[in-house]
Amino acid sequence: MTDFAALLQPDRGQPARTIHVVRPEDYAGWLAAQPARVRTAVTAARVTGKAGNRAILPGEAADDWSMLLLCDEPLESPWRIASLGDGLPEGTYRLAGDGTVGAAGLGWLLAQHRFARYRKPDPVGARILLTPDVAAIDETVRIAAATARVRDLVDTGASDMGPAELETEADALAAAHGATVTVTRGDALATGYPMIHAIGQAAAKDRAPRLIEVEWGDPAHPRIAIVGKGVCFDSGGLNIKPSSGMRLMKKDMGGAAHALALGGLVMQARLRVRLHLLIPAVENAISGNAFRPGDVLATRAGVTVENTNTDAEGRLILGDALTKAGEAAPDLILDFATLTGAARVALGPDLPATFVNDDALAADLFAAAAAVRDPLWRLPLWDGYDDMLRSDIADMVNAPDGGFAGAITAALFLRRFVPAGTPWAHLDTFAWRPAGKPARPKGGEAYGLRAAYQLLKGRYA
């Protein structure tokens, strides 16, 4: 993991090169106030005043220079100077003016992170940013590390990131914070969490299904549950995916990655909660004992589910995990899941489809998302579609025929496993960035992580 703490340092007046971040509408006035050598350099660099323009500005001495960046991102944006985080020479920098970094520190840090498990990155020196806001450094570093953790877990190939490896991640997280881990597998899983067992039973023995639980905090504090979908690879089961649909299915444990990262942030901040982190971890494989279309599955909640599609497995394992979470009467439940293609068709990769059963929780969550510029988009838990889950032979089906409102019907399925009256938010996230942007490379991505953490800080700090 990148040593983010080394890249964001207190500004105590040490030598540093200056970065001038200028808004396009302010550029003409800024340029007019510069000495002739700067105006000449800007002209030579073909700076036109548009966002994204940049230039090296000469100083008075031969080895003195500073950087100009034209940027239309607001001060609150984490990505305001992200394009410079990996585009400048090794060295120490500060922002012009009073040096305030603010949210932009996150993008600076993440721009220097590389996923290096399978390929040695090009050697580059550290680019250190100085900030006068010393109190914010640790928090920015923690959020950068949590975001990078999600990216790295999702980017890891499925052969190296199965249910056992998710358990190892949970063990390490618990050990770092004095939490306890409980893992249910084998016969106990089959009887206690029959849907998790059914979906994972076709996998090889070393990739056997399990429910991983981490608990931390004072039992006297409000209990919160964070649930993450941990399908470590999704073949689609007997309703097998085409090759194009299977290509990225290593990322189907992206919900679990978000849950682990968020749980880590909660514990690092020592929020006043009793944390219950649950990860149902499976591989949706194909073998002679794979669950079948038409099978009727028992559930921990005691209802029955007619399986209409083995590729709608994520909601099944989450159903048992949500049931377990609700048994302890939590103050709220958050779940993260790479659940439906329908959410991506509707909203694309950047916006997690967000379903909330409590308007007060929704208001707090979306205010938190806006505050940290980690966007979410609310979709309705539309009661009128609940009948789509009707089965002729069981209490419900897992996936209605026809494909209408796929993200909504998946959320309605999950809602049936959440205790009435328990505030709950479900984030149907993509966990993948299909095209790179500054500090946000193509690959695994954390969507909604910062919003959820901001929500929890606001309620339980």
From TrEMBL:
GO terms for molecular function: manganese ion binding; metalloaminopeptidase activity. The keyword Manganese applies. Pfam families: Peptidase_M17, Peptidase_M17_N_1. GO terms for cellular component: cytoplasm. Residues 309-316 form the Cytosol aminopeptidase domain. GO terms for biological process: proteolysis. Gene3D superfamilies: Leucine Aminopeptidase, subunit E, domain 1, Zn peptidases. CDD domains: Peptidase_M17. InterPro entries: Leucine_aapep/pepB, Macro_dom-like, Peptidase_M17_C, Peptidase_M17_N_1. Keywords: Aminopeptidase, Hydrolase, Manganese, Protease. Belongs to the peptidase M17 family. This is Aminopeptidase. It comes from Sphingomonas adhaesiva. The lineage of its organism: Bacteria, Pseudomonadati, Pseudomonadota, Alphaproteobacteria, Sphingomonadales.
